[in-house]
Amino acid sequence: WIQTATRPAGWSSASPPKFGKTSEAMGISLSGYGENCVVENNTFKAKTESSIGIELVGCCDSTFNNNAFIGKFKFFSASNDRIMSNLKIINNKMVEKYSNVETYIKNVKNSIISNNTLGYIRIINCDTLRIYNNYIYSSNSVAVQFDNSQNCSSANNLYSTYDSSINDTVLSFYGADCCNNISYNDELVRSKNSGGNYYKEIGNAKNN
């Protein structure tokens, strides 16, 4: 398992390594039982919405810091049922506004998501996440959805669907196992076109 990628001769944060060009691509996949992984100071670029920048499929105790994403695709995605813990997703950004198709966080606990500028985020089956100081600009009908997740705290974030043509709700809590999540001092901005809800509980979500 590569804990920190070996940097080729001449590498610098000003000119990070580039990934190959394909019609449908994945920048990096952290699968298996890796620990202490560091993915930082990279630029991920893709042209297809089905492409993935960083795939989280089992790693723990790992940091994703200061990565930039160019193009319209999924910046972070997850496709495994293994519980991941102690992740830090910090200081990452989409270069072009509304380019993030989805940031898909699944089966993560005891982790931090902070100081990112991203698009629509879906948080599935997660527990005890600390989410703070993020800027979330979504062109979807929802900015952030907690899907059957528990005990998460959201603070000092900007969640916006301002330029979305259809707004259902800015902050959504969904599913019977979605409970005991708290949002405080978050700024929720509704669509200028269709209004909608600032937040709501659906699908038997409770105590949020």
Give a brief description.
With 208 residues, the protein is mostly beta strands.
Keywords:
208 residues, mainly beta, eight-stranded parallel beta sheet, globular, disordered N terminus
The tally of beta strands, per DSSP, is 23
Radius of gyration: 17 Å
Terminal CA distance = 39 Å
The mean pLDDT is 86
Largest sheet: 8 strands, parallel
Strand content: over 45%
Runs in which pLDDT lies below 50 for 5 or more consecutive residues are 1-9
Give an overview of the whole structure:
With 208 residues, the protein is mainly β. The chain contains no helices and 23 strands. The protein has strands at 26-31, 38-40, 43-45, 52-57, 63-65, 68-70, 73-78, 84-85, 88-90, 93-94, 100-106, 108-114, 117-118, 121-124, 127-132, 135-137, 142-147, 153-155, 158-160, 169-174, 182-184, 187-189, 197-202. Residues 1-9 have low confidence and may be disordered.
What's the arrangement of secondary structure elements?
Elements: E1 26-31, E2 38-40, E3 43-45, E4 52-57, E5 63-65, E6 68-70, E7 73-78, E8 84-85, E9 88-90, E10 93-94, E11 100-106, E12 108-114, E13 117-118, E14 121-124, E15 127-132, E16 135-137, E17 142-147, E18 153-155, E19 158-160, E20 169-174, E21 182-184, E22 187-189, E23 197-202
Parallel strand pairs: 1-4, 2-5, 3-6, 4-7, 5-9, 6-10, 7-11, 8-12, 9-12, 11-14, 12-15, 13-16, 14-17, 15-18, 16-19, 17-20, 18-21, 19-22, 20-23
